[in-house]
Amino acid sequence: MNNDKEKVSKNKSEDKEESNSNNSDIIFEIKDFKDLKTYLKKTDLIIQDIDEDTLTINYKSDKNNQFFLKIIDAKDLDSFLKISEGLDSAKKELNEQLLRLAAEFDNYKKRSIKDGENLKNRAIEQLFNDVVFFVDNFERGLKIYEESNKDTDFYKGMKAVMKDFEKFIEKNNIKKIEILPGDNFDPNFHQAIELRESKEFESNKVIEIIQPGYSLNDKLLRPVMVVVSSGEKSE
């Protein structure tokens, strides 16, 4: 029995010594790159020198996976950090330039669209000015025929032509300025050609519409020509 205890004690002592021996293999003082290479070669790694401060490392169990180990000194590290900072700064500046360029291009597109719309409106305005006086005379003729020849084919044909003109101006965003006798005179849209005394209408009221007015996209093309009341004559 005592012999068995002695064997167990001896085995524990041997295991302890072996453990201490293994620990001494693991503990390794690394002072420089050379010491690091020496240590790595004792591990389960395949080490290959590339140059004096660079290694390639593979696992023996998996040679397809490879990584590099490079030692850089403080000066090299400072240089690398400065380059990195410079790249970050250049990247930031490039992004800002791209954003500015995108904004300028967006403004250019808006200006181009606006310039195109302005050009189109000027062309419509010019065309309208070229035909509006003809239409005025045409409309006056309709009113004359309406009194005595309302049921004739000629009058109906003239009325159809006038309808086509109204469709044309509506299609091109030209609107006839709505006004009726008795409305207030508005100098923004009306042009007074005569000031007339009136018992029926108060002062500054429209008595008669002489010539219609038109607007294009809320821009005045031609004011309405009107006769305006000065009120009843004071005795």
Q: Which terms summarize this structure?
A:
single chain, 235 residues, Nucleotide Exchange Factor Grpe, Chain A, domain 2, three-stranded antiparallel beta sheet, 4 helices, 54% helix, rod-shaped, disordered N terminus
CATH topology of the domain at 174-235: Nucleotide Exchange Factor Grpe, Chain A, domain 2
Q: Low-confidence parts, pLDDT < 50 over ≥5 residues?
A: 1-10, 19-26
Q: Could you give a short account of the major beta sheet?
A: 3 strands, antiparallel
Number of strands: 9
What sort of overall outline do the alpha carbons produce when their principal axes are compared? rod-shaped
Measured distance between first and last alpha carbons: 153 Å
The name of the CATH architecture of the domain at 174-235 is Roll
Mean pLDDT: 76
Strand content: 15-25%
User: What is the radius of gyration?
Assistant: 50 Å
Secondary structure category: alpha+beta
N to C succession of SSEs: HHEEEHHEEEEEE
Which CATH class of the domain at 174-235 is shown? Mainly Beta
Biggest sheet, strands in spatial order?
1-2-3
Secondary structure: helix percent: 40-55%
Give me the number of helical elements: 4
CATH superfamily of the domain at 174-235: Head domain of nucleotide exchange factor GrpE
